Amino acid sequence: MGRKWNNIKEKKASKDANTSRIYAKFGLEIYVAAKKGEPDPESNRALRVVLERAKTYNVPKAIIDRAIEKAKGSSDEIYEELRYEGFGPNGSMVIVDALTNNVNRTASAVRAAFSKNGGNMGVNGSVAYMFDATAVFGVTGKTVDEAIELLIEADVDVRDVVEEEETVMVYAEPDQFHAVQEAFKSAGVTEFTVAELTMLAQNYVTLPEDSVAQFEKMIDTLEDLEDVQQVYHNVEFEE
């Protein structure tokens, strides 16, 4: 389980290093979620998930409000949710989730990011079956036993509750995101260090030293693409 947390932490730290990029991506994701349903998080569960995630990245309220107001307006921008799957060196696997208003542009850019950095795109389903969609929460101020007790009292099913690096980590099915969130909030927890809907690899690989830099460049290139929202992989980096 530690590998899961390490990969989330590594990805989150990488994204935090470029706040303008992460804010822009959240702005689009909030707009799309609000546009698909009511622009009110109380009645739009997808929007509530995005807003809870945005809090852990310290996305400014002005950006959130602007995206929601845009969704309330007359904007007719249509974005498609796309998933690409591919391979890097030495058995590494990558999933790329995108929001785009130009499918051809996005597909071309993602394909180029793979091919120019030693990877190649696969067909749909070639990689995703090796990952599990997972709701992940990080909580401080609670012990593992306290977290388990409050989740049981709230009748919430989770996969695992463990302590890692002074943080209680909760792993659950994606459809339990709100249930886990509400269970902790009812117990007085108002802030989460991690609140994600993510894809966690079932098995991780460590790359040979001569492949690490190329793989990292591929991931960085993918994450820098305007249309890409999330990049998941099964590589565990040496500390």
> Largest sheet at a glance?
4 strands, antiparallel
Low-confidence stretches: none
Structural class: alpha+beta
**Helix/strand order:** HHHHEEHEEHEEHEHE
What's the N-to-C terminus distance?
16 Å
Number of helices: 8
Indicate the percent of residues in helices. Answer: 40-55%
Report the portion of residues in β strands.
15-25%
Give Rg in angstroms: 18 Å
What is the β-strand count? 8
What name goes with the CATH superfamily of the largest domain? YebC, transcriptional regulation domain
Count the domains: 3
CATH architecture of the largest domain: 2-Layer Sandwich
Q: In terms of topology, how is this protein built?
A:
Blueprint: H1 2-16, H2 19-36, H3 45-56, H4 61-72, E1 80-87, E2 93-100, H5 103-115, E3 120-122, E4 131-139, H6 144-153, E5 160-164, E6 167-172, H7 177-186, E7 194-201, H8 209-224, E8 228-233
Antiparallel strand pairs: 1-2, 1-3, 2-8, 4-6, 4-7, 5-6
Helix pairs in contact: 2-3, 2-4, 5-8
Question: How would you sum up this structure, described in words?
Answer:
The protein has 239 residues and is an alpha+beta fold. The protein has three domains: 71 residues, Orthogonal Bundle (Arc Repressor Mutant, subunit A); 82 residues, 2-Layer Sandwich (Alpha-Beta Plaits); 72 residues, YebC, transcriptional regulation domain (Alpha-Beta Plaits). 44% of the residues lie in helices and 22% in strands. The protein contains eight helices and eight strands. The strands form two sheets. A four-stranded antiparallel sheet has the order 3-1-2-8. Strands 5-6-4-7 form a four-stranded antiparallel sheet, sandwiched between helices. Strand 1 and strand 2 form a beta hairpin. The protein is globular, with a radius of gyration of 18 Å. It starts with a helix and ends in a 6-residue tail after the last strand. The mean pLDDT is 89.
